Structure formats: C-alpha cells, structure tokens
Amino acid sequence: MPLRDAHILVMDDDKDVLTAVRLLLKPEVGHIVTDTNPENLKCLLAGASFDILLLDMNFAAGLHTGNEGLYWLRRIKEWNAHVAVVMITAYADIDLAVNCLKEGASDFIVKPWHNENLLKTLGAVLEKQHTPRQKAATDDTQETFIIGESDVMRELFRKVEKMAPTDANVLILGENGTGKELVAQAIARASLRSDKPFVKVDVGALTSTLFESELFGHKKGAFTDAREDRTGLIETASGGTLFLDEIGNISLPQQAKLLTVLQNRQVTPLGANKPVLVDIRIITATNVPLAELANEQRFRKDLMYRINTIEITVPPLRERSHDILLLSDYFLCRYAKKYRKPGITLSAAARSKLLHYAYPGNVRELQYAIERAVIMANGAVLQTDDIVFSPIEHRTPNTDRLQTHNLEALERTAIMQAMEQHAGNISKAAHVLGLTRAALYRRLEKYGI
User: Of 3.40.710.10, 3.40.50.300, 3.20.20.80, 3.90.950.10, which CATH number belongs to 151-313?
Assistant: First the structure.
C-alpha cells in the first residue's frame, strides 16, 4: 500500500509533537487522526480502521520507563491484531526497542526524528503489512469505518466502546446520511461476536410477503414461487449480529411478527411446522424521531422496549463542524484515486464554502459534493464553483421542521445559512442576523465556522 492511501493514528501526550506530525503527514497520507489520551485508544480503534498507529512510550509526567507504552501496545494487540504499531520514545534505549518488537511492535523511532526518516519508516512498515483493510480499500463499496474527531463523535465512540462487548440490543437514531450503518458495523466489529455473521436487512423496503420469506425463510412449496428451501436472514445471522435498518417504517402486523421472534428467540420458516432456535444480537436503526416512534398508533411499545435496551444518536454533520474538512479530505483522496486524478486539492475558498454550508443531507451530501467536484474538475485545485450541493436537499426554510431544539445548534445553523446566502460577506450576514460584525466574528470563532 502506498503511503498516500494510508490511515494513520498518532497517540502522544505532547501537543507540539502531534502538531508537527500532523503538518508532516497530512499532505503525505490519506487520513490522519491525533489524540493525547491513550484511554481513548479502544474506542478510536473500534470506530475506525487504521493501517499504522504511532504510539508514544511515556504518558505520565516524570515517568520515562516506557512501561506505559508497552502496556498500551499489549492492549492494542488484544483489540486489533492487524494494526501496525510504531513506538515513539525520546530515549534511544536498544533494550526497550527490542522489548517493543518482541511485544508485537512493527518498528521503533526516536524523537526528535528527521522527517525523511519517519516517512521512510512508515513506508517500510506499509510494505510489510498485509491486512484485511488493504483488500477492502481497493473496493469503493466497502467503507466500514467512521471518521470524526469532534467532541460529539468522541462521545459516540465512547458509547460504542461501552456497549459493544455486551449482547444488549441497540437502537441507532439519526437523520438520513449521518452514517447509522457504519455505527452498527463498528458495534459489531468491537463485539464478542465480531467473528460471526453481520447481516443487514432494509426492513422498511420489504413488502408483507417478502418480510416473512426474507427474514424467516421458507420451505419448498410454501407458496407459488417457492421452488426450493430457503434459509431466512435471521437464521443466517444466528451466532452473530442482525442489523435491521429503517425499523421505523415497518407496519404494525410486521412488528407483531418480529416481536414474537425476539421474545421466543426462534423462527418458523414459511411452510414449516418446527421452529428453529436462533442466537442473535439485534441492532436497529431509524431516521424517525424517538417521540414519534414511541407513538402507540405507529409503533408497538412492547417492541420498542425489546429493541431499545440502549439507544445511540448519530449527530448530524451541522453539529460536528470540526469534522467537515477532515471528511472532505478523506473523500477527496478517495475519489481522486478512483477517478485517476492524483494531486487534486481544495482551494481556501472552496474549504470555506464547505464549512459554511448547513448539510441537510449530512455526510452523504458532502460525499456527493466532493465526488461530483472531482469528476467535473478541470484543474488540480478545486474552486468554489466546483463545489455544488445536491438540489435534492434544498428545502424551503418556512416548511422545514426543526430537527433539534438545542439553542446552540439552531444558532450555528442560522449563522451558516446566513453566511452561505451572502457568500461569506460578514457585514451582510451580520445584518440579517441582527448582530454586529464583532458579535458575528465571536460566534464564528465559537462554532469553528
């Protein structure tokens, strides 16, 4: 794998080191994440797929034994045996280096380092590395990791870490395009069932006839077109995880049948008399607000309690503005590679336009905009005119239902819409918002716009 396609995580308690590494690697690699707290390692590794982890040896002030680094190295190898770990230390101790290599580290660097040597080390590690992620990276359809460094995403990763090892049923809430399926995959990947099947079903798209046939299976002759026995998806997922997407869109009769399966932990294929026992963990997802979903006339409350042992909400992109450019760079690298346009970049004005948009279509809309821009680009630097957002998502403000009642989120959205409407003109945006220029500047800084 070339370095430009690599996904790298850097863990060091020295923020100056993290800044230096980010500045060095950002133009050289596909994606880079930095963090100062090793306690976040498990959730970061569960929420994303990294090729290399640069890990500092010492985190506690005044301690320079390297024992902390060795401890975290051992834990990392327990959580993810495939990620290559390169240890960082300020002390050139050959014995410590040997211990790290014995414990599974791929290499060892001493700080301060020469930039060329660090890049060569990373390149050499990648050449030796052959992981499942490398295979997945060649297939554009296999995007199975979550990208995010904002506070709300770190909180989401923390929740995934806590709930994943249990068998508790999980309900994932969130608007369209936020990445609910990726969260479901992250939970399954970090669970005790990670080596068992992960089966996704878009139940909202199934008719009443297909619902039973697809989920429960059928015997030959059970109905006109049943020419052979078929194993249902619930039975296929036995031992692993069943992900039911768009659960809020199924009918009340379908809900009753699903509830029976969840209560009894067994399914009876159509045309069969004997039930089949199943062992599944259920993860469900919906874009329907929880209050509406809990309406007895639309969704059975007894089923709600079955699927909602734990609920997790995936935040909309407008509430994680610090991730917009991070995601943009990832999609830019991905589609530049796909469409054979290496070296393509975003101008400062294009980046500003991306930051000032409200994204009603969330991450999916951002992905669409970047892919279109790469395809249609005439030059190596994308300009504002190259960034075109989906007309599908354009809404009339007066008919838009509020997706949140959080005042800060509402204020941020209003500011972004005003900035977009007036093409980044501070004076005009401040005027329509009823603010002074100074007050608007303060809010722009506050919300990272």
Answer: 3.40.50.300
Digit-coded pLDDT (tens) for 229-268: 888 899 999 999 999 999 998 888 899 999 999 999 999 9
Q: For residue 238, list its beta bridge partners.
A: none
The β-bridge partners of 88 are 56, 109
- 38, HSE (Cβ side, Cα atoms, 13 Å): 20
pLDDT of 344 > 60? The answer is yes
Name the token pair of 244: 């039911």
**Sheet containing 241-245: which strands, arranged edge to edge?**
198-202, 241-245, 281-286, 170-173, 310-313
SS3 267: strand
> What would the pLDDT profile of 361-417 be if each residue is shown by its tens digit?
999 999 999 999 999 988 889 999 999 987 766 544 443 444 556 677 778 888 877
The 10 Å Cβ neighbour count of residue 397 is 7
Asked if residue 156 lies in contact with residue 184, where contact means CB atoms within 8 angstroms, the answer is: no
Q: Cis omega (within 30 of 0) on the bond before 112?
A: yes
From the list 329, 404, 388, 365, the residue with the least C-alpha distance to 147 is 329
